[in-house]
Description:
Blueprint: H1 7-32, E1 37-46, H2 50-58, E2 70-79, E3 82-89, E4 94-116, E5 121-142, E6 147-159, E7 162-173, H3 176-185, H4 187-206, E8 211-212
Antiparallel strand pairs: 1-7, 1-8, 2-3, 3-4, 4-5, 5-6, 6-7
Helix pairs in contact: 1-3
Amino acid sequence: MQGFFNRNFWKVTGIMVAIYAGTFLTSTAIGLTLPDQLEAKRTVFVARPPATVWQAITNRSAEPRWRPELLTVTREPDHDGRPVWRETYWSHQKIDLEQVERSDGGRERRNAWVWDDRAGKLVLRTVDRHTPHHLVQYMRFQALPVLAGGRRTIDVAPAPGGSLVTIREQKTIRLPPFRTWARLFVLPQLASVTVDRYLADLGRRVGTPPTLSDRH
């Protein structure tokens, strides 16, 4: 009880409160000027055909067998007719991923005007166009009110001797002060931990280590 009336106690308490309040207000002011999204993107080369890589990426229920941080991946009820998968991590964090766009690759035939060097004129020909492997998922974070959601986009494109795999993670930060703190503590790890770990695990799954690509 004697310490409660001690001036030094209240002086130290006042200084600590002022520091915390100043830090919060400064972070809020900076956060108001920052975009509400964090983004990390990486493109790697994998010496496997696109179809092989794509099969590993889209076989969702098998992911815990090659992604060590996952405990389970379970199918949830559809949302507006779109499939939803729930990832549960070793930390027991849960992320629901709603598939909003998917293209499984393939070949389209269409008519197009092309230049014929021998004839010296444009001619109408049927040409083949390869559609990309493209997956867009909307992320909902369970029990993480700071994050308003995000997107995970994965593209697999053919390349000489294998495939180019591009993954992009976007997370939306709800509150301004956390936008500042996220850029200091989360953004440096978003690519090096989240994205790079996924690509390294994917490489082990298909049996070849990924290498960084110059493509951005």
